[in-house]
Design goal:
The complex is a heterodimer of chains A (about 350) and B (about 210). Chain A is an alpha/beta fold and about 350 residues long. Chain A is about 40% helix and about 20% strand. Chain A folds into two domains: about 230 residues, Rossmann fold (3-Layer(aba) Sandwich); about 110 residues, Rossmann fold, CATH 3.40.50.920. Chain A has a seven-stranded mixed beta sheet, with helices on both faces. Chain A has a five-stranded mixed beta sheet with strand order 9-11-10-13-14, sandwiched between helices. In chain A, helix 1 crosses helix 2. Chain A is globular, with a radius of gyration of 21 Å. In chain B, about 35% of the residues lie in helices and about 15% in strands. Chain B is built from seven helices and six strands; from the N terminus they run E-H-E-H-E-H-E-H-H-E-H-E-H. Chain B is globular and about 40 Å long. The chains are: A alpha/beta (about 350), B alpha/beta (about 210).
């Protein structure tokens, strides 16, 4: 299949169009502007609508309204913008509405920097809104994987009636890689789901989509039912383990840093160090079982992130604190290089 | 010689990598060179990241610094006359597309006066410039945004890490067609005409 060069942001936008996304609502912020820019040029050609909202809050509430009609829709933003969207995301979870949200992390807190970061891991996986909010979060690490996961994210959102996050960082959004799309599929006519508000025309029961449930019994029942439904997502956790069988140290990272630890592992292996890598492809739910299996022979684990250490807690918990877990991180927009990670690995091997 | 070379093209065509190659080549040939980073649209993968390499090669880098400002966009501070007084060649790395080229417009009258060359860097593997027609359309938008005209085409068709010798060979008909449609000379009909070293790399490439 012919490959073309695309930026991560452009590729996600094209993949969304091909996945049948019909509406995009967003507000510009670096480093994810190519998503909106691409959709503003191409979404209308497939009968869709691109709309630049007056704010991030406006955008996520437009997504709420659009999703309520059973139409595939998405929004995207970067760190401060995602913070603004969290109220709306919580409302969507409360109303069981599907959508895709692309979060392209930049350095924070506050305005921080426009350079890449992974400091919104906690926000994406633990605190994307108030209430018992848990949404599935994908963390691709290549432009091709972004394309494949975009389709999957839309399908998952529809199947489990939930917002789904694709968690990137500025580098993944801005970098270019060769990518191929499947053949132009004949677009399937999607039936409106039986919960969508599409106008009853006095021909069917009136439908109501809301997150407001004033009776404790009703709210509790809804929460428990939603949690039971989300259990099904746990069966979809995905990960990639490389060279873990004989590894003394398993290095764990997602997204951009997962690419860097791969190079660090190759450096270390070339010098005789037994190093493996583990990459969560879904970070929520976290692939607990897979990482436990990957680290069953490991004497130590090293988590590498572009933050002060956020995923490291999920790794420790998944391993039930049975293996010593070290952390190496860079912040402020820096991407760690393979050399510095190899240095950290060498330090750790002294204690083996 | 006193020369100004403007490098323009679509995002991802490889403008910055070409600008770095060109600066190093001219510098090695003994020309006192300066590179001005005018890409204020895309703050990633810019020539201003090559400050140290340029310093070692004796190349002056004219780039604004985000430091000390409260803005999250780079600003432009290029004194064309000042740079030309002390250098043989000024290479201007412009931003991609018509949006990025707008910044050039500010310098257009001065560049017209002192004379310039403008190389249009093309890549048939980028999704927006896969055909010669689309590539020429992008050029026309750039030209109308900046008020300058391209003087030559540089074929930089690549596929990042998956580039092979065939990638370039297969792109020749495309490059010839772009040259024919624009009536401009094609600077490189074979790889040897201007071998390209990859300087703009992702952090995990060793």
């Amino acid at each position: 299949m012919k490959k073309t060069l695309m930026k991560g942001n452009e590729a996600i936008a094209e993949a969304a169009i091909r996945a049948g996304c019909k509406c995009y609502f967003g507000y510009p912020i670096t480093p994810q502007n190519e998503i909106g820019a691409y959709l503003s040029q191409h979404l209308h050609k497939k009968g869709g609508t691109f709309l630049q909202a007056e704010s991030e809050i406006g955008a996520i509430n437009m997504v709420y309204g659009c999703a309520a009609t059973g139409t595939r829709c998405m929004t995207s933003s970067s760190s401060p913008g995602i913070s603004l969207k969290t109220e709306g995301i919580s409302y969507m979870v409360g109303a069981d509405l599907p959508c895709v949200i692309v979060s392209v992390q930049r350095g924070g807190p506050g305005l921080g920097t426009i350079q890449p970061s992974q400091a919104d891991y906690m926000q994406a996986t633990k605190a994307l809104g108030h209430g018992d909010v848990h949404v599935p979060v994908f963390a691709p690490c290549s432009v091709q994987e972004m394309v494949d996961i975009t389709t999957e994210a839309f399908d998952l959102a529809d199947e489990f009636l939930t917002p789904v996050v694709i968690l990137l960082d500025g580098l993944l959004g801005q970098m270019m890689e060769p990518v191929s799309f499947g053949d132009d599929a004949v677009e399937q006519k999607r039936e409106y789901p039986d919960w969508a508000v599409t106008g009853h025309e006095n021909k069917r029961e009136y439908r109501n989509i809301t997150s407001l449930r004033l009776h404790p019994e009703e709210l509790e029942e809804t929460l428990i039912a939603r949690q039971a439904r989300m259990e099904g997502v746990k069966a979809r956790t995905r990960s990639q383990a490389v060279n873990c069988e004989d590894a003394d140290i398993v290095v764990v990272a997602y997204g951009t840093t997962a690419r860097v630890i791969q190079s660090a592992m190759e450096m270390a292996r070339a010098e005789g160090f037994k190093i493996g890598t583990f990459r969560p492809i879904t970070v929520a739910p976290f692939p607990d079982k897979q990482i436990k299996a990957a680290c069953k022979n490991a004497k130590q684990v090293l988590v590498v992130e572009m933050s002060l250490g956020q995923m490291v807690h999920d790794v420790k918990a998944a391993l039930e604190f049975s293996v010593p877990v070290e952390f190496y991180g860079r912040q402020g927009g820096f991407v760690p290089g393979p050399e510095e990670i190899f240095e950290k690995i060498k330090e750790m091997t002294v204690s083996l | 010689m006193k020369k100004i070379i403007v490098i323009t093209g679509h995002y991802g065509a490889g403008k910055t990598n070409f600008a770095v190659n060109l600066a190093l080549k001219l510098s090695h040939e003994g020309h006192k060179s300066a590179v001005a980073d005018l890409d204020i649209v895309n703050p990633y993968f810019c020539t201003h990241e090559f400050g140290k390499m340029f310093e070692e090669a004796g190349i002056t880098l004219v780039a604004s610094n985000i430091k000390g400002t409260s803005s999250d966009v780079p600003a432009v501070n290029l004194n064309v006359g000042g740079v030309l007084a002390n250098h043989d060649v000024l290479i201007i790395d412009a931003g991609g597309d018509d949006e990025g080229a707008k910044v050039l417009g500010r310098y257009a009258p001065e560049l017209e006066r002192v004379g310039y060359e403008m190389y249009y860097v093309v890549n048939c593997n980028r999704i927006q410039t896969q055909t010669a027609e689309a590539t020429v359309q992008v050029l026309r938008a750039i030209e109308s945004a900046c008020g300058l005209k391209a003087t030559a085409i540089f074929n930089n068709s690549h596929l990042c890490g998956e580039t092979t010798a065939d990638t370039f060979a297969e792109s020749l008909p495309y490059a010839d067609e772009v040259a024919a449609l624009t009536g401009l000379p094609l600077l490189n009909r074979d790889v040897e005409a201007f071998p390209i070293e990859v300087y703009v790399k992702l952090p995990w490439f060793m």
